[in-house]
Amino acid sequence: MKPQKRLCLITGGSRGIGRGLAIFLAKANYRIAFSYNKNVDSAAEVVKEITKVGGEAIAVKIAVESRDSIMQGLEEIKLTYKTPISILINNAAIAQEKPFLSITDDDWSHMLAVNLQGPFVLVQELIPEMINENFGRIINITSIGGQWGGLNQVHYAASKAALINFTQSTAKLFSSAGITSNAVAIGLARTEMSDGELESDAGKRKVSNIPIGRIAEISEIAETVKFLCSDGASYITGQTINVNGGMYFG
Predict the structure, then answer these.
(1) Quick check: is 156 catalytic?
(2) Which long-range contacts (CB under 8 A, 24 or more apart) does 143-148 make?
(3) pLDDT in tens, 143-158
(4) Which tops the pLDDT comparison, 41 or 4?
(5) Residue 247 and residue 214 in contact, taking contact as beta carbons nearer than 8 Å
(6) Among 30, 81, 156, 248, which one carries the catalytic annotation?
(7) What is the pLDDT of residues 131-144, one digit of tens each?
(8) Can you state the angle between helices 105-112 and 154-174, rounded to 10 degrees?
(9) Minimal CA–CA distance to 221: which of 44, 20, 3?
(10) Which domains, ranges and CATH numbers included, belong to the chain?
């Protein structure tokens, strides 16, 4: 049985995992709004692909580090769909490989503005309508780096660890109103960005150390997210669901 046709907002949906989530959830009968920042052509292609399979989708330009940009994007979604956003998937994020002693104040601030402040603002803006509807799903896409730390991405790992804690805090605050909040912690996944890296000798060593013996397909991540969106996940909240092939068991 297909789910009720709820409206789902996915940040960073023009490529990679966000793109995969948008298409997968559209096929599962969700209405889709997704954000992009710079990749307008890629965003248009995602809308086209979703429309081709009979789904509904719009792409809105949002810089998630800016509350003004978020508010403009949410207003555009509201004008298009005229229905509350029931599901928020905070997927948009940046990463930066940099030795610890080279990380600048601007590097640190920008990392946290995108990876942590953005999700905070989106939840803060969408929670009142979710409370009014007595239903909501907040799903934060985080990383194994937020669980076991980082070497050349300390600021990235810190932002993802904070996002896990934010997930737990919002679960404590809003679960009684029918709003669940969960994190999906990803290990290594097959995306356009990862393909080149994983073909290197260092990348191949990383893959060989995964107990399952391979990296994740985006569809496997999407299946987990789809379940967390569903009514069947109504008693799961405040959890970090590991989709990492056994790289980390915590």
Answers:
(1) yes
(2) 143/185, 143/186, 144/185, 144/186, 144/187, 144/242, 144/244, 144/247, 144/248, 146/185, 147/185, 147/240, 147/242, 147/248, 147/250, 148/248, 148/250
(3) 999 999 999 999 999 9
(4) 41
(5) no
(6) 156
(7) 999 999 999 999 99
(8) 30
(9) 20
(10) 7-243 (3.40.50.720)
